[in-house]
Amino acid sequence: MFLNITRKEDLAKPLSIFVLCKICVFLNKLNTHIMKYIIILIAILGLQIHTNAQEQVKPDHRPQSVVQDPLNIRKAEDVTKVDILEALEMTGVYIHKIDIGAFHQKNHLTLKVEEWHNGKKLWSELLYDDDNLYTYQSLSDAEYYRDYLQGIRIIAKNMDDNAIKISIRIGDLLSTRIYQMQKSTEPIQFFEWRKYRDTHWKLNKEVPLAIYASSWKDPKYDIYRFCGTLVLGDNDADTKELLESSPNYLLFTLTTTEIKD
Q1: Beta strands 191-196 and 231-232: pairing type?
Q2: Alpha-carbon gap, residue 251 to 211, rounded angstroms
Q3: What is the pLDDT of residues 135-173, one digit of tens each?
């Protein structure tokens, strides 16, 4: 008589029965009282072997929110994007999306950052110096294509000793920088981000995008403060006050020029 064993679980059944029979023969030679408890233990072990042999894999179709938090301790359905952004800001992380407008032809872009201290420019650095196209892979045919840039993303992390770590995504390029800001002689100093109202590209013009600036002491009210507006403009009074009053800031600008054949 031959057994047709093609699966691992099929092999487990006759093997476990054979082992149990051998153990029972051995137990007949032992004390009856001891054998009673051992038989119970063997029965439990045999049941476990049988259960494992019957185990089946079933796909888990639960939402990822349930898989990651099965008891719903975090109440993810009640958490909004604003809640998440505020939580990130408590850890010193800020996310800024900048709309630079739509392109309809190939141009050259220059993304630059400058540091200013007490009204003087200390240095400038090129963060992007290329055309306004990026490469992507299509999901439908897996081919590679190019399209016009749609915006710039800045993720900033406040670090110790007035340092800031900045990650800039423009198209398929990701660059990271760490800048050391100037320490003020004042007892209180803090830095804030502000974006400009009109960040769409303009041909042959340097367009300010965002600023990371230090607080200053207001001599009129004898307090340490920052700019009173949340969005900056080219010539408005609040923007002018910020640029003239903040002792130290980083200014991000974008310049668009034609590409000549």
Answers
A1: parallel
A2: 5
A3: 999 999 989 999 999 899 999 999 988 999 999 999 889
Q: Please report the DSSP string for 114-131 in residue order.
A: EEEETTEEEEEEEEEEEE
Instruction: In whole angstroms, give the CA distance from residue 89 to residue 103.
Output: 32
Task: Write phi, then psi, for 146 (nearest 5 degrees).
Answer: -125, 145
Q: What is the pLDDT of residues 25-55, one digit of tens each?
A: 665 665 565 666 666 666 666 656 555 555 6
Q: At residue 11, what is the residue type?
A: L
Q: Could you tell me if 188 and 201 are in contact, meaning their C-beta atoms sit under 8 angstroms apart?
A: no
At 1, list the tokens.
């008589």
In the three-class reduction of DSSP (H, G, I as helix; E, B as strand; rest coil), residue 212 is classed as strand
Closest CA to 166 of 177, 153, 181: 177
State phi, psi for 140 to the nearest 5 degrees.
-80, -45
Q: In what order do the strands lie in the sheet with 173-180?
A: 93-98, 152-158, 163-170, 173-180
